């Protein structure tokens, strides 16, 4: 089990790295730690992302309903410490989070400082998405443009723009869905509504 877990975490890391360097690209994490993540309170892709990114040096926050058990599981497997939203290195937003909670995340999270822009939070959002063209993505890692559709994105797109308005400050995003797909949206990516 331990060898499988190490292998799956390495594969998860490579998947996230690939998606972060190619914003808007959807990759699957299906099959990674199936037995382990099946016992998790969150989506399987959320749990493998937590195992991939967190360790005793990184802190995390959970936003959504009934996240106590998930927080305990993540802390137990990663040795990471659960922290308040404004201080967390990684913020996991579950699919049960309300619109107000999601908006609050973008208003409260760390966006780094000019001397240390890397001291910002990464937001992991449970969402439904596809490569249909509701949104147009532009920026580094995208040849011309990429198309993406994210459920309820209108609820937080403006807040994301505000959080990322003073580059290099800002937040990076990792989106995961119920089918264990992952897509990344770094702070350098510009998102426009299709037809606007």
UniProtKB/TrEMBL annotation:
Q: Which Gene3D superfamilies match?
A: Bacterial phosphonate metabolism protein PhnH
Task: List UniProt keywords, sorted A-Z.
Answer: Lyase
Recorded hits in InterPro entries, A to Z, give: PhnH-like_sp (IPR038058), Phosphonate_metab_PhnH (IPR008772)
Query: Has the keyword Lyase been applied to this entry?
Result: yes
Q: Which GO terms describe its molecular function?
A: lyase activity
Q: Is Ribonucleoprotein among this UniProt entry's keywords?
A: no
Matching Pfam families: PhnH (PF05845)
Name of the protein in its database record: Phosphonate C-P lyase system protein PhnH
């Amino acid at each position: 089990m331990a060898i499988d877990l190490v292998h799956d975490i390495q594969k998860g890391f490579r998947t996230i790295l690939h998606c972060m360097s190619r914003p808007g690209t959807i990759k699957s994490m299906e099959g990674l730690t199936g037995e382990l993540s099946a016992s998790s309170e969150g989506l399987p892709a959320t749990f493998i992302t937590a195992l991939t990114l967190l360790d005793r040096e990184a802190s995390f926050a959970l936003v959504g309903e009934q996240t106590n058990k998930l927080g305990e599981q993540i802390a137990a497997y990663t040795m990471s410490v659960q922290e308040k939203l404004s201080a967390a290195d990684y913020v996991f937003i579950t699919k049960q989070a309300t619109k107000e909670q999601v908006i609050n995340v973008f208003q409260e999270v760390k966006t780094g400082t000019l001397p240390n822009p890397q001291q910002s939070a990464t937001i992991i959002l449970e969402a439904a998405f596809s490569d249909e063209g509701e949104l147009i993505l532009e920026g580094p890692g995208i040849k011309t443009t990429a198309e993406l559709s994210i459920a309820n994105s209108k609820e937080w797109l403006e807040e994301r723009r505000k959080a990322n308005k003073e580059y290099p400050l800002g937040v990076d995003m990792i989106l995961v869905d119920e089918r264990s797909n992952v897509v990344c949206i770094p702070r350098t990516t510009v998102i426009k509504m299709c037809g606007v």
